[in-house]
Write a structure and sequence with these properties.
CATH superfamily of the largest domain: Cysteine proteinases
Shape: globular
Number of helices: 22
Largest sheet: 7 strands, mixed
CATH architecture of the largest domain: Alpha-Beta Complex
Helix content: 40-55%
Number of strands: 14
Number of domains: 3
Distance between the termini: 31 Å
CATH class of the largest domain: Alpha Beta
Length: 538
């Protein structure tokens, strides 16, 4: 019921593992890479083990893995491991669509049928994978049966690869002496840890954008408190953030601060000690009455808490738009290393085509900027267009969430490519006249970190605010950093502002210096309307 109030299309913090909302931290990318290794190296046999605390994203990663399986892969997904050895064999055969009528209840018959299937798949060049979720719940006899399945092999390679996902207890189980034979066959192990403070903010902001949100409601201290109360566990972040939004809606709050986060966490997290129930019942009644009253009062008080505004704030309340022409996004051509080398050599080092495509994304006229060989560009007609250039890593540019030009180099040639989006394995770029999807590793091998881009914001930001100065640009900066408070015009760029800038830079992966340079201002303006990067490449 709060979606319209916050300008959302859907709930941003649902606990269902929707791949559209996946935001992969560095640890999650590494974990997914281990699972993909287990699929790609199916012929090597053995096990791949992924463990992590409850709610850290193991099941979400498994769903993402299923979406990225190679076409030559057949997978058996076991979601309920509380089965004996025979039932587990039956489940695997059913998942692979084997006809096991008349074979149920017989381990030998089921293994024979599975072996025939695996040999036929091997002859067709297929790989077969078994993924067992919540593997810490496997009984001892089922674990031994899983180990025996890896004995199905030819003279040159194993026929079956097994991925084990589970809670930390799985590591303890496999460390037992009686399971050492299985443990020795694990070829890759990875333990998924919770998000750090920077990853928490990036995670929350990503889900907010996917749900259609434009102005992020959580204050910096609110995010810090969310991270502390949830311990960086994504599922708990979702639960607390969802309840905090509901609390903000009930109180007509346009921002979510640390107090609201604490109130939400106290309500949804399990108690650490025994509590008397009657105060909880009374509190529940009060909350219910408050929510009902707020709902009835919504029509006349939706704007009850509106801070002092500027032209920039009015713009930030406008729904964001991707503003991306269909022919740039949907017509893509896969590109390998050889093709990229040829394309870079044929495209040339002039940045003009890239800038023209970038202006098209922003729906700006071609004469809005003048390309300068000594720099990225100069605004020509619109003082609210700002240019930025420098060196950064890919994760930083993805966090800023705007299309940027990347300078690629290969075999002595240079070319400018327009970054349009990325997922865990691929990057979408426009280079020359066409749009291509390439492997992340391939891009990073051809890109030294040099980038250039533009962004739109108030004209007074043409000169970046500096520490010790004051004026409209500093006022705007204060308003973006502390939307909870009214801004007193004319205050200087002091230690408070610098601390806020530092927190933002840490969250976005921008070099930390407390100075609001062009890339930092661009990150602050990312809440304003304009084109955004794709997060899922179809």
């Amino acid at each position: 019921m709060y979606l319209g109030y916050y300008g959302l299309h859907e709930a941003p913090f649902s606990i269902t593992p929707d791949p559209r909302f996946v935001h992969l931290s560095e640890r999650h990318r590494d974990a997914l890479a281990h699972l993909l290794f287990g699929v790609d190296k199916g012929g090597s046999g053995g096990f791949v083990q992924l463990t992590g605390e409850v709610g850290t994203g193991k099941t979400t990663l498994s769903r993402l893995l299923l979406e990225q399986l190679p076409e030559d892969t057949r997978i058996a997904l076991v979601l309920n491991p509380r089965q004996d050895a025979v039932e587990l064999l039956e489940t695997i055969c059913e998942e692979l669509h084997l006809d096991i009528e008349g074979k149920r209840g017989s381990s030998k018959s089921l293994i024979d049928a599975l072996n025939v299937y695996l040999l036929d798949a091997y002859a067709q060049g297929l790989r077969v994978v078994v993924l067992i979720d919540e593997a810490q719940n496997l009984p001892a006899d089922a674990l031994e049966q899983v180990r025996l399945l890896t004995n199905l092999e030819t003279h040159t390679q194993k026929l079956l690869q097994i991925l084990l996902l589970g809670q930390p207890e799985l590591r303890d189980m496999l460390a037992r002496p009686e399971l050492r034979q299985l443990s020795q066959r694990i070829t890759a192990r990875y333990h998924l840890t919770p998000l750090d403070a920077r990853g928490t903010e990036a995670y929350l902001r990503h889900r907010w954008r996917v749900a259609g949100g434009t102005r992020f409601p959580f204050t910096a201290k609110g995010v810090q408190r969310l991270h502390a109360r949830a311990g960086g566990v994504p599922r708990l972040l979702n639960v607390i953030a969802e309840r905090a939004l509901l609390a903000g809606y009930a109180r007509d709050a346009t921002v979510i601060d640390a107090r609201l986060v604490d109130a939400a966490a106290n309500e949804v997290l399990p108690p650490t000690a025994k509590r008397i129930w009657w105060p909880w019942l009374a509190a529940a009644g009060v909350v219910a009455v408050a929510v009902i009253a707020a709902t009835q009062f919504r029509g006349t008080s939706a704007s009850a808490q509106t801070p002092n505004t500027t032209q920039a704030v009015s713009a930030s309340n406008t729904p964001a738009t991707s503003a991306t022409p269909d022919h740039i996004i949907t017509t893509t051509i896969p590109l390998d290393a050889t093709g990229l080398t040829q394309l870079i050599g044929a495209t040339g080092d002039t940045p003009l085509p890239g800038w023209q495509a970038l202006l098209e994304l922003w729906q700006l006229p071609a004469d809005s900027i003048t390309v300068d060989p000594a720099g990225p560009c100069r605004p020509a007609t619109n003082p609210e267009i700002h240019c930025v250039q420098g060196d950064a890593n890919l994760d930083t540019l993805l966090a800023v969430d705007r299309p940027v030009l990347l300078r690629l180099r290969d075999a002595g040639s240079d070319a400018w490519a327009l970054l349009l989006g990325a997922d865990v394995r691929r990057v979408r770029i426009r280079i020359g006249e066409h749009t291509h999807d390439i492997d992340r590793v391939l891009l990073l091998a051809r890109w030294n970190g040099r980038y250039a881009s533009l962004w739109q914001g108030p004209a007074m930001l043409g000169s970046a605010p500096r520490p010790g100065t004051s004026g409209p640009a500093v006022d705007w900066l204060r308003l973006q950093l502390t939307p909870l408070h009214d801004v007193v015009p004319g205050l200087a760029y002091d230690g408070t502002v610098r601390a806020g800038v530092t927190i933002l830079q840490q969250a976005r992966g921008i070099p930390v210096d407390g100075i609001a340079g062009p890339l930092t201002l661009m990150a602050l303006a990312s809440e304003l309307p304009g084109p955004r990067l794709l997060r899922v490449l179809d």
